[in-house]
Predict the 3D structure of the following.
Amino acid sequence: MNVIIYARVSSKNGDTKRQVLELREYAERNGYNVLGEYEEIISGAKKNDEREALTNMMSYIQNHDAKVSKVLVWELSRIGRDVGEVIQTISTLNRLKISLYIKNYNIETLDEKGEVNPLSELLLNILNSISQMERTMISSRLKSGLEKFRKAGGKTGRKQGYRKSEKQLLQDHSEVVKYLKKGFSIRDI
């Protein structure tokens, strides 16, 4: 059986190695042939078309001669945290008769006949909604904390009287400039 491994982390501090290693071991134990591994460091809240490794994996699956039977992920949130985007990915895989295996819950989207497993579909919808709710709550707490800080007299932004020339600012932050030129996002830097 041919499989693909997909792993994602949200920040540069994260590492996909653990996910990939565990999924390789799972594939080996089950006698699966791993056709490819797709890893990326990007927020799960991003749209599917903004996620290069996910886009490349889906293109590979749709255009490759060897029949891919399963995509292995460590947990559902690795596919994404936006309910609509995750459902889109799973629907595409289901349409292509490719099962999504989620290791931490030991569930698959398709049964052995290649039909949608109704129980796993229900569980995945619930888990996906919880994942998106978690992301929304984190954002809400951050905004609330910042608002409370400001109401208590806290200041955000540059200190009053801060003056540096553009040249000096770029020179002081040359590492940041280097990463920006390489295409890293401000959040990742």
Summary: The first strand starts at residue 2 and ends at 9. Residues 118-151 form the longest helix (34 residues).
